[in-house]
Amino acid sequence: MAAIPSVLITGASTGIGATYADRFARRGHDLVLVARDRQRMEALATRLRQHTGVTIDIIQADLTQTAELALVEARLRDDARIGVLINNAGTALGGSFIEQSTDAVERLVALNTTALLRLASAVAPRFVKAGAGTIVNIGSVVGLAPEFGMTVYGATKAFVLFLSQGLSLELGPKGVYVQAVLPAATRTEIWGRAGADVNAMTGMMEVDELVDAALVGFDRREAVTIPPLPDVDQWNAYEAARQVMLPNTRQEHAAERYRR
Ligand code: NAP
Questions:
Q1: Is 207 exposed, middle or buried (0-12, 13-18, 19+ CB in 10 A)?
Q2: Which of 169, 189, 186, 190 is nearest to 178 (CA)?
Q3: Is-above-0.90 flag for pTM?
Q4: How many Cβ atoms from other residues are within 10 Å of residue 171's Cβ?
């Protein structure tokens, strides 16, 4: 792997992905940008090439389409220059569970979980063989909170957190760094795409601030980075409560309260 590895970023045409592209280009990394809107990626690439001189490739792909996703998987498997995968592409869906169509929730799951998983799976064996590499998965605080009323979206983000933590345990000892980033409400187009008026909302983080904070966590090699959370001890206590409970889950007999 090169001293400054290339970075493949999904959902790089706008928002969080485009901001990651800007930051990695400034750090001198060559890029591979992936999204559906080629024109926007071309415009971003032109600007970043001019300002930073890095090499930028573009893959136009709808990651919910198996054949197009396979092109990105192949690039990750075969291109040894790529040492960082930013698994960022994702979307949200307005409405309650019964208002969302079955096809729409399937598409949401396909992008937010299946595509992210397949890309990680495509690249991980090569990273392990090299003893180096990084996978950054963009989750959401919504994945911690069924109470927020974004049930399917939150479920996909709970998947992203679990997958990231599991991969960190599995791949970390083999030299691969895995980071889960959990933004909260951040000013991007995702809200408009889901039918919400971002300008009517308060408490939004600006996308530059979100990505810069996520990169502080990245540079510190944090397994889980929650940029808006003021007190990291709250996250640590949440994780510690899980660890206290876990050893009690393996029992020969059902708990007393379930015995007739
Ligand atoms: P965004 O501004 O809507 O950008 C989403 C990106 O994903 C775009 O580049 C879009 O590009 C790409 N994309 C969407 N559907 C795609 C598809 N089918 N195939 C390939 N690319 C696709 O959203 P964002 O806020 O930056 O979101 C980035 C990630 O952050 C997502 O995983 C999201 O869940 C997460 N997140 C966001 C927030 C927030 O408040 N903004 C909070 C928590 C987590 P094209 O349209 O060109 O394909």
A1: buried
A2: 169
A3: yes
A4: 18
Query: In angstroms, what is the span from residue 90 Cα to ligand 1's centroid?
Result: 4
CB half-sphere exposure, 203, CA atoms < 13 A: 5
Q: Which domains are present in the chain?
A: 6-258 (3.40.50.720)
Q: List, for residues 84-140, the tens digit of each pLDDT value.
A: 999 999 999 999 999 999 999 999 999 999 999 999 999 999 999 999 999 999 999
Which ligand 1 atom is the nearest neighbour of the CA of 107?
A: 18
Q: Is 153 among the residues known to form the active site? A: yes
The Cβ of residue 221 has, within 10 Å, a number of other Cβ atoms equal to: 12
38 CB within 6 A, ligand 1: no
Q: 227 in ligand 1 pocket by Cβ < 6 Å?
A: no
Q: Residue 4 carries which DSSP code?
A: S
Q: Which ligand 1 atom is the nearest neighbour of the CA of 16?
A: 26
